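Is adenosine-5'-diphosphate placement plausible here? Inputs below.
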Amino acid sequence: MTSPTSTAVCADSDPVLILLQETFGHRGFRGAQREIVDHVIGGGDALVLMPTGGGKSLCYQVPALMRDGTAVVVSPLIALMQDQVAALTQVGVRAAFLNSSLSAQQAYRVEQDLMRGDLDLLYVAPERLTTTRCLELLSSVKISLFAIDEAHCVSQWGHDFRPEYLQLSLLHERFADVPRIALTATADPQTRAEIITRLSLGGARIFVSSFDRPNIRFSIIDKADARAQLLRFIKNEHEGDAGIVYCLSRKRVEETAQWLKEHGIAALPYHAGMDSARRNAHQAKFQRDEGIVIVATIAFGMGIDKPDVRFVAHLDLPKSIEGYYQETGRAGRDGLPADAWMTYGLGDVVQQRRMIESSEGSEAYKRLSGAKLNSLLGLCESAQCRRVQLLAYFGESSTPCGNCDNCLTPPQTWDATVAARQALSAIYRTEQRFGVMHLIDVLRGKDNERMVSWNHHQLSVYGIGKDTSEAEWRNVFRQLVAMGYASVDQTAYGALKLTELARPVLRGEQSVQLRRTVKAKSKAPKGPRSRPLVDRIMSLVATGHLARLKAWRLEEAQRQGVPAFVIFHDATLTEIAQREPREPAALSDIAGIGKRKMEQYGAAIIALLAGT
Ligand code: ADP
Ligand code: ZN
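Reply from A.M.:
I modeled the complex. Tokens:
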């Protein structure tokens, strides 16, 4: 898809643009791509910060083809390298990889190609690149540039840390004249600083793109029965679509995958506790097949380069906004509409706080983790545009997006000062020894044995909140805990305790605003909405074309042993289906079809559309 910021100018006299159109089939550059490409072609070093799906690969692939010699791309994941090389080969670029998946003989052949100058791009795993043998090999050939992908792997603070990345500063020492371009989707200033120092990129120009992903719709809903909510969401919005469901624990991953399967969803589990053969098989199936839902811990993610993931769902709360944004960013890389959906409840707050408390980390680490969690809770509890807040967290200002739950169905906020005071005083009167369920029973004046045995039916707070529903009270308590007015004591069966912040509220010196639950839709919308999302935006005829094009693509992909999206992206097939081109030449206007693909597949597509 062409983004609105694409610069489509006459390509006649611009060799870079001709290359982009003829080889990659794109109409123009996106955002800062052109500037970055020109800078690297000119021999400059660059640090590129761009969100997932922003189009980082082109930033080094185009200069690789414009400059003399072979570009060396450092990439941390084998699966990713294979797909990138397959995609480049499809468009006629001479690319190969060197990693542990190759036999000695295969590696030897790649090395021979390199020495003959027959490679435009060579992808290398970091542990191989830093061997003496590999460095000597590279010293003997002409290198056009070094690209360091997923550069945040150099950061010891991040969960993607790869020790071999620390040695990559030697590239600067050994190949001082070769431009280097480091790329990452991790935006925080701390990681950025670490990349610059550790990769000796002090002199590099830094390109920071907007981190907005306008095609992703963010929704965070109140947790009731998480699994049922998830199933409803998938059935209503994403039947037949590929998606990722994140859970915190391995057990929950297994249970959720099993449960979805029992309810007719093609779901597969993925977590670090599975044996690696099964895990890899699931990842490969997700990557290559259509419409698989992978249920995973955060062990799953980096290196997933699948462009048509239509939703990312969180059943448990992530640790931070960085984590949330990175995980949700795996949706909709192809630029088509996608959902980031999360259910969130009091249990999540309690669980994350407990994990921080019981972690082995230093006090400073716990403080930092606590602050990061609080920022995320702020996002969950907010009634404002989610995107505005996400982007603000990364230092970007924006206006309400119109494509998040809070923009689409603005939640009401209400003056909850009285309710908050009642809830906090229920905690106080019951001596900070009881959990939420009991406190709600007290407030609602429940007539049960526990009330009598603790003498709680005698308290001044007994029954003062009987006009408020149980669900609404749960909401109030959750928000009070999330906002820090109360905390949950793990050592005392989840008893709620007051914090310092509660004092002014109890004294009536401070007002409290809370958000009102927006009722989750309980019934599945009927008809066309239950079809896969991509199909929904098309006419009936086009939908028929698309189905046939997809079947053809699948066959072609299987024949060549590559993922389907390497042949064509969904966006490209969708455009073909809608435009119904009658001759091959008309295909060249469609985004994602360059010269090579037109030669290779043009006739087959036209014949397919004509029904011959
Ligand atoms: P990233 O590595 O930043 O996540 P990719 O390089 O994988 O992103 O690109 C994401 C998607 O955007 C890919 O499907 C790619 O083909 C597409 N894309 C990148 N640049 C352009 C462009 N200038 N015009 C059209 N599509 C583009
Ligand atoms: Zn919004």
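Short version: The chain has four domains: 6-208, 216-408, 413-515, 535-610.
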